[in-house]
Design brief:
alpha+beta; 9 strands; 4-stranded mixed beta sheet; 145 residues; 31% strand; Nucleoside Triphosphate Pyrophosphohydrolase
Length: 145
């Protein structure tokens, strides 16, 4: 068994915000964090005793200044990064209130396939494939080199 298989996974709630035009929101990882400058779907770690939806609600308010409506569980994937093993709980969010505030100095971009911002965090790539499958999209899902 390799070291990666013995590491405990950190559970992370991830919001896939989809606007009325079908675009989805990506945010950049802020300076000082691992993979700074990479684009991802926003979210964060679950705290002890917290559900995925409550963690997502808390994280998106802390990071983006918005209050989300219902979070629809979508997919879960496990990613092994050099710094951590993470279990990503992706939820679709179609409703929110409040004005977006980039409270961690990150950038935001509404995107469609193929995603034009780069580089895209590896944990984000499966989501782009899921969107492609749902939309019957063929071709590259992102413009990463």
């Amino acid at each position: 068994m390799s070291g990666d298989e013995t590491r405990a996974a950190v559970d992370v709630a991830v919001g896939v915000l989809i606007d009325a035009d079908g675009r989805f929101l990506l945010t950049s990882r802020p300076d000082g964090k691992v993979y700074a400058g990479y684009w991802e779907f926003p979210g964060g770690k679950l705290e002890v005793g917290e559900s995925v939806e409550s963690a997502l609600r808390r994280e998106l308010h802390e990071e983006l200044g918005i209050t989300i409506g219902a979070a629809e569980p979508w997919n879960v994937t496990l990613m092994d990064y050099a710094h951590a093993r993470v279990r990503l709980h992706f939820c679709k969010v179609h409703a929110w209130s409040g004005e977006f505030e980039m409270r961690e100095g990150q950038a935001m971009a509404w995107q469609r396939l193929p995603v034009e911002v780069a580089p895209v965090l590896p944990g984000t790539l499966p989501v782009l494939e899921w969107f492609a499958a749902e939309q019957g999209f063929t071709g590259k899902t992102h413009l990463n080199p």
